[in-house]
Structure formats: C-alpha cells, structure tokens
Design goal:
Length: 274
Amino acid sequence: MISPEFSTSFTIAIYMLASIVGLAGMILRKNICCTVGCWLACAAFFCQTMLLTFGFHKFFSNGLSIGAYLQMFAWFILVCGLGAWIIYSQKSFLLFAAQFGLILFLMSSPWLDVALKIPATLETPFYILHIGALFLFIGIISIAFVASILFLFLSFRIKYKKKMDGFWHDLPALSVLDKVNALCVFLAFPIFSTGIIFGFIWSAQIFGSVFDADPKKIVSLLVWILLAILFHNRLANCWKGRKPAWIVITIFLISIFSIFIINYFIPTMHNFVN
C-alpha cells in the first residue's frame, strides 16, 4: 500500500515542476515550455487520479483525512482546468489550475493524519451527492475566478494604455476570458443549486429541518443568491465585462471563507474534525 505521505510528496513534485515550467514559459513567452507545463499538469492529474482510484487514503482506519479532502478539491479544479484547455485551446487555464493544485497539495501535507470522520448516522446517498456537486462547483468557480482576475488586470492595462507586450500579450483576449466566465456561471449555478437541494434533503432526513441558523447554510444561501443574480443577468440582460468578473471573485472568496474558516473555526454542523 502506497502511503499518503509518499503519494502526496510525489504528486507535489510533479505539480511543482508543471508550475515552474509553465510559468517560465508564460513569462519568457516560450510556447514549448507552456506545452510541456500543460503535459506535466496532465501527468500530475493522471497520477492523482490513479492514487484516488486505488484508494490509498484508506490507509487511515478512522476515515478520510482533511488532507485527502484538500487533494480532492485539487482534482476537481484540474478537471475544470483541463476542460477549459480543451474547449478554448488556452494553455493558461490549465497552468493556473496546476498552481491551485500545487497550493492545495502543499496545504494538505500537514493534515494527512487528521481524520475527517463522518458519523455513520450521517452517511446517506444524499450526503455523497451533496458533497460531489459542491466539489465540482468549487472546481468550476476556481476557473471562473482565474478568468475574472485576468480580465480585470487586462482591462485595467488597456484602459490606462499600459504596454501589452511580453507576458500580457500572450494571455487570452478579453472576449475569451468573458466567455469562460459566462460558461462557468452557466454550469456552476445549476450544479450548486443541485448540491444545495441534496443538502436540504439530507438535512431534513438527519436533522429534521431543511434550513436553520447554521453559519454554513447562511453563507451557502448568500452564494446561491449571488449566483442566481449573475446567472439571470448573464442570460436575460447579457451582462458582460467587469461586473460579472467582480461578482465571480466575490463568490469565490466567500466560498473559500466557508470552506477554510467556517468549517474549522466556527461552530457548525458541518465540522467533522476529530
């Protein structure tokens, strides 16, 4: 059995190599380096997929660790980064997804032996569907976040007539970044809504109530409202440009706050750390 420590270190090494080579290619404008960086990111993704498939985290008898969940976040983000690379033929999305993967794997290392044990009474099919949908949502909104940040930086440089040579010249066009943002919103809203519905059903089955004053539920409702506003206006009012970018950034930051602050530092029924 491959230990979590070894597999994590091995995957970190590949993600780090992909990040270094890919970023060097973007900064130095070397297409071959960007291509190699993308394929290294694919190799890291494949390696991680195999490790997850063969269940190396079952090494822990008391359940999955917090580190395992962080690594699963990385996997979903890489899935979305690969999708953006394939759909839009833009290497930058996969290379930035690799950066997220590297950060999450580095964060996971100290938490590999801290169990995140879900009580047997809470384990239902709706819980699995709830978590799976929200993991996929995080992957999609992470790509939208990257597209939004790049959109705002590029639009700022264009507005103030900054030079667009070198690194900036090779980034996707504003129209492409806006399309990525829009596609991510169109995917994220129904997926997040589905995850919330499954969560409500699960809560009703286990706790006897659909919605209460739990901080996680309140923040999730806020995220859903912002997504709904953005989804509606993208479709009905053809929103484009900076406003959708800022809303996506806000949604991403609130989601990160929910995952890393509320889950572990604020009393909530979603805290399962032993």
